[in-house]
Amino acid sequence: MTADLMVFAAHGLFGTSCITSLTVQSTVGVAASYPVAAEVVRATLDCLWADLPAAGVKIGMLATAANVAAVAEFIGSLRGKGTRIPVVLDPVLRSSSGRELLDADGVRLVRERLLPLVDWVTPNVEELSVLTGLRVAGREDVPAAALALQAMGDVNVLATGGHLDAPDDLVVTRGGAMEWLPGELIETTSTHGTGCALSSALLCRLVRGDEAVDAAGAAKRYVSEAMRAAVPMGKGHGPVRHLWPLVTDVKSKA
User: What's residue 43's pLDDT?
Assistant: First the structure.
Protein backbone atom coordinates (compact mmCIF):
# COMPACT_ATOMS: atom_id res chain seq x y z
CA MET A 1 0.00 0.00 0.00
CA THR A 2 2.80 2.41 0.83
CA ALA A 3 4.38 1.55 -2.52
CA ASP A 4 1.15 2.32 -4.39
CA LEU A 5 0.89 5.70 -2.66
CA MET A 6 4.46 6.49 -3.70
CA VAL A 7 3.64 5.62 -7.33
CA PHE A 8 0.70 8.02 -7.24
CA ALA A 9 2.89 10.75 -5.71
CA ALA A 10 5.57 10.18 -8.36
CA HIS A 11 2.91 10.91 -11.00
CA GLY A 12 1.72 14.06 -9.26
CA LEU A 13 -1.46 12.50 -7.85
CA PHE A 14 -2.76 12.22 -4.29
CA GLY A 15 -3.73 8.69 -3.33
CA THR A 16 -6.12 7.42 -0.67
CA SER A 17 -6.11 3.86 0.57
CA CYS A 18 -8.41 1.10 1.80
CA ILE A 19 -6.52 -1.68 3.59
CA THR A 20 -7.88 -5.16 2.82
CA SER A 21 -5.29 -7.25 4.64
CA LEU A 22 -2.41 -6.70 7.04
CA THR A 23 0.67 -8.59 5.94
CA VAL A 24 3.75 -9.65 7.85
CA GLN A 25 6.40 -9.35 5.17
CA SER A 26 9.88 -8.16 4.33
CA THR A 27 12.14 -8.36 1.29
CA VAL A 28 12.51 -12.08 2.05
CA GLY A 29 8.80 -12.86 1.60
CA VAL A 30 5.31 -12.83 3.09
CA ALA A 31 5.27 -14.65 6.44
CA ALA A 32 1.58 -14.18 7.28
CA SER A 33 -1.52 -12.20 6.33
CA TYR A 34 -4.50 -11.06 8.38
CA PRO A 35 -7.53 -10.07 6.29
CA VAL A 36 -9.62 -7.05 7.22
CA ALA A 37 -13.35 -7.73 7.71
CA ALA A 38 -15.42 -7.09 4.59
CA GLU A 39 -17.76 -4.69 6.39
CA VAL A 40 -14.76 -2.56 7.37
CA VAL A 41 -13.53 -2.56 3.76
CA ARG A 42 -16.92 -1.42 2.45
CA ALA A 43 -17.29 1.22 5.18
CA THR A 44 -13.85 2.58 4.33
CA LEU A 45 -14.66 2.79 0.63
CA ASP A 46 -17.95 4.58 1.28
CA CYS A 47 -16.32 6.97 3.76
CA LEU A 48 -13.52 7.92 1.37
CA TRP A 49 -15.86 8.34 -1.60
CA ALA A 50 -18.17 10.66 0.36
CA ASP A 51 -15.28 13.02 1.11
CA LEU A 52 -12.69 12.46 -1.62
CA PRO A 53 -14.32 10.90 -4.71
CA ALA A 54 -11.54 9.34 -6.74
CA ALA A 55 -10.45 10.07 -10.29
CA GLY A 56 -9.50 6.40 -10.66
CA VAL A 57 -9.39 3.14 -8.68
CA LYS A 58 -6.63 0.55 -8.41
CA ILE A 59 -7.61 -2.80 -6.89
CA GLY A 60 -4.86 -5.03 -5.55
CA MET A 61 -4.77 -7.77 -2.93
CA LEU A 62 -8.29 -8.59 -1.67
CA ALA A 63 -7.44 -11.59 0.55
CA THR A 64 -10.95 -13.09 0.95
CA ALA A 65 -14.03 -13.87 -1.12
CA ALA A 66 -16.02 -11.57 1.16
CA ASN A 67 -13.69 -8.68 0.34
CA VAL A 68 -13.97 -9.41 -3.38
CA ALA A 69 -17.76 -9.22 -3.02
CA ALA A 70 -17.57 -5.97 -1.02
CA VAL A 71 -15.34 -4.31 -3.61
CA ALA A 72 -17.47 -5.59 -6.48
CA GLU A 73 -20.59 -4.15 -4.81
CA PHE A 74 -18.86 -0.79 -4.37
CA ILE A 75 -17.61 -0.59 -7.97
CA GLY A 76 -20.99 -1.81 -9.18
CA SER A 77 -22.71 1.00 -7.26
CA LEU A 78 -20.43 3.55 -8.94
CA ARG A 79 -21.15 2.11 -12.37
CA GLY A 80 -24.87 2.09 -11.58
CA LYS A 81 -24.72 5.81 -10.85
CA GLY A 82 -22.99 6.46 -14.18
CA THR A 83 -19.57 7.18 -12.66
CA ARG A 84 -17.04 6.54 -15.42
CA ILE A 85 -13.57 6.53 -13.95
CA PRO A 86 -10.78 4.11 -14.87
CA VAL A 87 -10.63 1.01 -12.66
CA VAL A 88 -7.50 -1.18 -12.80
CA LEU A 89 -7.46 -4.66 -11.24
CA ASP A 90 -4.14 -6.22 -10.28
CA PRO A 91 -5.26 -9.79 -9.48
CA VAL A 92 -2.95 -10.57 -6.57
CA LEU A 93 -3.43 -14.31 -6.06
CA ARG A 94 -0.08 -15.43 -4.67
CA SER A 95 3.02 -13.69 -3.30
CA SER A 96 6.30 -13.94 -5.17
CA SER A 97 7.55 -16.09 -2.29
CA GLY A 98 4.72 -18.57 -2.95
CA ARG A 99 2.15 -17.74 -0.26
CA GLU A 100 -1.50 -18.00 -1.34
CA LEU A 101 -3.21 -14.61 -0.98
CA LEU A 102 -6.71 -15.42 -2.29
CA ASP A 103 -8.63 -18.70 -1.97
CA ALA A 104 -10.56 -20.54 -4.69
CA ASP A 105 -13.90 -18.91 -3.82
CA GLY A 106 -12.26 -15.51 -4.05
CA VAL A 107 -10.78 -16.30 -7.46
CA ARG A 108 -14.22 -17.44 -8.67
CA LEU A 109 -15.80 -14.17 -7.54
CA VAL A 110 -13.03 -12.20 -9.25
CA ARG A 111 -13.93 -13.95 -12.50
CA GLU A 112 -17.70 -13.76 -12.12
CA ARG A 113 -18.37 -10.46 -10.34
CA LEU A 114 -15.34 -8.16 -10.38
CA LEU A 115 -13.80 -8.68 -13.81
CA PRO A 116 -16.89 -7.43 -15.72
CA LEU A 117 -16.83 -4.17 -13.72
CA VAL A 118 -13.22 -3.07 -14.27
CA ASP A 119 -11.54 -1.44 -17.25
CA TRP A 120 -8.13 -3.10 -17.00
CA VAL A 121 -6.67 -6.27 -15.54
CA THR A 122 -2.89 -6.74 -15.17
CA PRO A 123 -2.05 -10.43 -14.53
CA ASN A 124 1.37 -12.00 -14.62
CA VAL A 125 1.65 -15.31 -16.48
CA GLU A 126 0.71 -17.42 -13.44
CA GLU A 127 -2.32 -15.25 -12.67
CA LEU A 128 -3.30 -15.32 -16.34
CA SER A 129 -3.31 -19.11 -16.22
CA VAL A 130 -5.34 -19.29 -12.99
CA LEU A 131 -7.97 -16.81 -14.16
CA THR A 132 -8.48 -18.41 -17.57
CA GLY A 133 -7.82 -22.05 -16.76
CA LEU A 134 -5.42 -22.18 -19.69
CA ARG A 135 -1.82 -23.37 -19.64
CA VAL A 136 0.60 -20.44 -19.89
CA ALA A 137 4.13 -21.81 -19.93
CA GLY A 138 5.82 -19.44 -22.35
CA ARG A 139 5.44 -16.43 -24.62
CA GLU A 140 3.62 -18.47 -27.26
CA ASP A 141 0.80 -19.22 -24.78
CA VAL A 142 0.17 -15.62 -23.71
CA PRO A 143 -1.87 -14.25 -26.67
CA ALA A 144 -4.59 -16.92 -26.54
CA ALA A 145 -4.91 -16.67 -22.76
CA ALA A 146 -4.96 -12.85 -22.84
CA LEU A 147 -7.69 -12.90 -25.50
CA ALA A 148 -9.68 -15.38 -23.40
CA LEU A 149 -9.38 -13.13 -20.35
CA GLN A 150 -10.36 -10.08 -22.38
CA ALA A 151 -13.51 -11.84 -23.54
CA MET A 152 -14.43 -12.96 -20.01
CA GLY A 153 -15.00 -9.42 -18.82
CA ASP A 154 -14.90 -7.20 -21.92
CA VAL A 155 -11.81 -5.70 -20.33
CA ASN A 156 -8.44 -4.36 -21.44
CA VAL A 157 -5.62 -6.75 -20.53
CA LEU A 158 -1.99 -5.95 -19.75
CA ALA A 159 -0.35 -9.38 -19.39
CA THR A 160 3.04 -8.87 -17.77
CA GLY A 161 6.00 -10.91 -18.95
CA GLY A 162 8.54 -10.30 -16.22
CA HIS A 163 8.83 -14.07 -15.69
CA LEU A 164 9.40 -14.81 -19.39
CA ASP A 165 12.81 -15.19 -21.00
CA ALA A 166 12.22 -11.87 -22.75
CA PRO A 167 10.34 -9.57 -20.33
CA ASP A 168 7.83 -8.35 -22.92
CA ASP A 169 4.28 -7.39 -21.92
CA LEU A 170 1.19 -7.93 -24.05
CA VAL A 171 -1.68 -5.44 -24.35
CA VAL A 172 -5.06 -6.66 -25.57
CA THR A 173 -7.66 -3.91 -25.80
CA ARG A 174 -11.42 -4.16 -25.47
CA GLY A 175 -11.63 -3.94 -29.23
CA GLY A 176 -9.39 -7.00 -29.59
CA ALA A 177 -6.29 -5.13 -30.78
CA MET A 178 -3.07 -6.76 -29.63
CA GLU A 179 0.39 -5.24 -29.18
CA TRP A 180 3.58 -6.49 -27.55
CA LEU A 181 5.52 -3.99 -25.43
CA PRO A 182 9.20 -4.95 -25.68
CA GLY A 183 11.16 -5.09 -22.45
CA GLU A 184 14.78 -5.60 -21.46
CA LEU A 185 16.35 -7.73 -18.79
CA ILE A 186 17.56 -5.51 -15.93
CA GLU A 187 20.15 -7.15 -13.69
CA THR A 188 18.99 -6.22 -10.18
CA THR A 189 17.69 -7.77 -6.98
CA SER A 190 15.36 -4.78 -6.51
CA THR A 191 12.21 -6.33 -7.94
CA HIS A 192 9.85 -6.40 -4.95
CA GLY A 193 6.39 -5.15 -5.90
CA THR A 194 7.04 -4.48 -9.59
CA GLY A 195 3.62 -5.81 -10.56
CA CYS A 196 1.88 -3.57 -8.03
CA ALA A 197 3.86 -0.57 -9.22
CA LEU A 198 3.01 -1.31 -12.85
CA SER A 199 -0.74 -1.45 -12.27
CA SER A 200 -0.66 1.73 -10.18
CA ALA A 201 1.41 3.54 -12.82
CA LEU A 202 -1.03 2.37 -15.48
CA LEU A 203 -3.91 3.89 -13.51
CA CYS A 204 -1.97 7.15 -13.18
CA ARG A 205 -1.41 7.38 -16.91
CA LEU A 206 -5.10 6.65 -17.59
CA VAL A 207 -6.15 9.35 -15.12
CA ARG A 208 -3.75 11.70 -16.92
CA GLY A 209 -5.61 10.97 -20.16
CA ASP A 210 -3.31 8.55 -22.01
CA GLU A 211 -4.86 6.16 -24.52
CA ALA A 212 -4.70 2.41 -23.82
CA VAL A 213 -1.41 1.30 -25.39
CA ASP A 214 0.35 4.59 -24.58
CA ALA A 215 -0.68 4.29 -20.92
CA ALA A 216 0.62 0.72 -20.72
CA GLY A 217 3.90 1.65 -22.39
CA ALA A 218 4.46 4.62 -20.08
CA ALA A 219 3.74 2.45 -17.02
CA LYS A 220 6.24 -0.15 -18.20
CA ARG A 221 8.91 2.51 -18.72
CA TYR A 222 8.24 3.93 -15.25
CA VAL A 223 8.81 0.54 -13.60
CA SER A 224 11.95 -0.13 -15.65
CA GLU A 225 13.47 3.16 -14.51
CA ALA A 226 12.41 2.46 -10.91
CA MET A 227 14.33 -0.82 -11.06
CA ARG A 228 17.42 0.83 -12.56
CA ALA A 229 17.41 3.61 -9.96
CA ALA A 230 16.88 1.30 -6.97
CA VAL A 231 19.44 0.99 -4.19
CA PRO A 232 19.79 -2.65 -3.06
CA MET A 233 18.50 -3.24 0.46
CA GLY A 234 17.32 -6.11 2.60
CA LYS A 235 18.25 -9.79 2.50
CA GLY A 236 15.88 -10.72 -0.31
CA HIS A 237 14.32 -8.91 -3.24
CA GLY A 238 14.39 -5.24 -2.30
CA PRO A 239 11.99 -2.50 -3.39
CA VAL A 240 12.24 -0.49 -6.56
CA ARG A 241 12.77 3.26 -6.30
CA HIS A 242 9.18 4.41 -6.69
CA LEU A 243 9.91 8.12 -6.32
CA TRP A 244 12.66 8.27 -8.95
CA PRO A 245 10.93 11.01 -11.01
CA LEU A 246 11.10 13.32 -7.97
CA VAL A 247 14.78 12.92 -7.12
CA THR A 248 17.66 14.76 -8.76
CA ASP A 249 20.28 12.01 -8.72
CA VAL A 250 18.42 9.80 -11.22
CA LYS A 251 18.87 10.22 -14.95
CA SER A 252 15.66 9.14 -16.64
CA LYS A 253 15.51 7.33 -19.98
CA ALA A 254 11.70 7.57 -20.05
Answer: 98
* CA-based R_g, the chain, Å: 17
Residue 52: CA atoms inside 13 Å, Cβ hemisphere, count? 11
Give the count of beta carbons closer than 10 Å to the beta carbon of residue 128.
25
Contact 228, 186 (CB under 8 A): yes
Tell me what pLDDT residue 252 has.
56
Give Cα 173 to chain centroid, integer Å.
16
Nearest by Cα to 186 from 92, 253, 127, 245: 253
Report the residue count for the chain.
254
Task: Return the amino acid letter for 100.
Answer: E
Helix (H, G, I), strand (E, B), or coil: what is residue 59? strand
- Tens digit of pLDDT for each residue in 48-65? 999 999 999 999 999 999
Q: Residue 97: its pLDDT value, please? A: 55
The answer to whether residues 79 and 39 touch, using CB atoms and an 8 Å cutoff, is: no
Q: Helical H runs in the chain?
A: 2-10, 38-51, 65-80, 104-109, 125-132, 142-153, 194-207, 212-229
| Cβ(118)–Cβ(155) below 8 Å | yes
Helices and strands (H, E) in the chain, number of each type = 8, 8
**pLDDT, position 248:** 67
Could you say which residues of the chain have pLDDT below 70?
95-99, 248-254
- Compute the Cα dihedral for 27, 31, 36, 41 and give only its sign: positive
pLDDT computed for residue 166 by the predictor: 81
